[in-house]
Design goal:
Largest sheet: 7 strands, parallel
Number of strands: 11
Number of helices: 11
Keywords: Methyltransferase, Transferase
Protein name: 23S rRNA (Guanosine(2251)-2'-O)-methyltransferase RlmB
Oligomer: single chain
Shape: globular
InterPro entries: Alpha/beta_knot_MTases, Ribosomal_eL30-like_sf, rRNA_MeTrfase_TrmH, SpoU_MeTrfase, SpoU_subst-bd, tRNA_m1G_MTases_N
Pfam families: SpoU_methylase (PF00588), SpoU_sub_bind (PF08032)
Strand order of the largest sheet: 7-6-5-10-8-11-9
Distance between the termini: 138 Å
Family: Belongs to the class IV-like SAM-binding methyltransferase superfamily. RNA methyltransferase TrmH family.
């Protein structure tokens, strides 16, 4: 009769040391792995994606501030006539020559601006589109003034214009030109959500941006309070104000004129910190004036009043 199956005994080993335990694996697993990375540093975390998106946006703003390209033959010629500070004129290879292109090249050479011929594809990439008409002018970044330096430099009754909610660079350029024409001392714009002194603003200002200072304010409300602390009267332009241009005397004191956009007007906090809200009398059927036009009307009247007191 066959014997029942029996499991063979385990062979004894001659391994030295402890025969029980995890062999140190558990102890190694309990070791610290260092500080937990921030959420924005973990590639799988939503905070990391938000950080990257913000960096891209910041980089885009920096690039726009560093280099501004004016394109199109007429705009380039206008900028050159206005003596906008430029770094180089680029002409696409194979571009058909005409009087405007020849004039742009001649103006650049007379001012010592380098002229470079580049492939059309390169100019497309530099300008961001193919609507450049074969020509592009790279202008230098505008050097903004400091608001507090401007206050300290003004002697006598200063006159400034503060722009609120103005996003069209053509409006900014037109205001700069008007402030210069009527003896103003400078223009203040918000640091964010505002038109900047780009090639379009340069062109609209007809070159006056080269001589009239423009300053950026990090906080517009705080800046207005600083003006008030330094003896300025702050006049906000808005429909339905308690004063009109016909009844207000703007010749006595240093003055800051706050101009809002035609659509949004002056923002609430800025309006609350104005000393006076003033409107411009117009025909009943006209709803409002363009921001740059409104600024020009008020600046002209204030300049007239100041001339009359001399």
């Amino acid at each position: 009769m066959a014997k029942p199956y029996q499991r063979p005994d385990k062979q004894k080993t001659s391994k030295k040391g402890a025969t029980k335990g995890s062999g140190g694996q558990r102890r190694r697993g309990l070791r610290g792995k260092g500080a937990t990375p921030k959420a924005e540093d973990r590639v799988y975390h939503a905070a990391h994606k938000r950080k990257q998106a913000q960096q891209r946006r910041n980089q885009g703003r920096h690039e726009r501030e560093v280099a501004d390209m004016v394109v199109g033959r007429n705009p380039v010629i206008e900028c050159l006539h206005a003596k906008v500070p430029a770094e180089a004129l680029y002409v696409a290879q194979g571009t058909g020559h005409d009087n405007r292109l020849s004039e742009a090249v001649a103006l650049s050479q007379s001012r010592g601006i380098p002229v470079a011929e580049v492939p059309k594809r390169t100019l497309d990439e530099m300008t961001g589109n193919g609507m450049h008409q074969g020509i592009g002018l790279k202008i230098q970044p505008y050097k903004y003034a400091d608001v507090f330096d401007l206050m300290g430099q003004v002697q006598g009754n200063g006159m400034f214009v503060v722009l609120d909610n103005i996003t069209d660079p053509r409006n900014l350029g037109a205001v700069i030109r008007s402030v210069a024409a009527f003896g103003g001392d400078g223009v203040i714009i918000p640091e964010r959500r505002s038109a900047q002194v780009t090639g379009v603003a340069w062109r609209t200002s007809a070159g006056t941006a080269a001589r009239l200072p423009v300053a950026k304010a990090t906080n517009l409300t705080r800046t207005i309070k600083e003006f008030k602390d330094n003896g300025y009267m702050v006049v906000g332009l808005d429909a339905g104000g308690e004063h009109t241009l016909d009844t207000f005397d703007g010749a006595c004191d240093p003055v800051v004129i706050v101009v809002g956009s035609e659509g949004k007007g002056i923002s609430r906090l800025v309006r609350e910190n104005c000393d006076v809200i003033m409107s411009i009398p117009t025909a009943d059927w006209v709803e409002s004036l363009n921001a740059s036009v409104a600024a020009s009307v008020v600046l002209s009247e204030f300049a007239r009043q100041r001339r009359a007191t001399k």
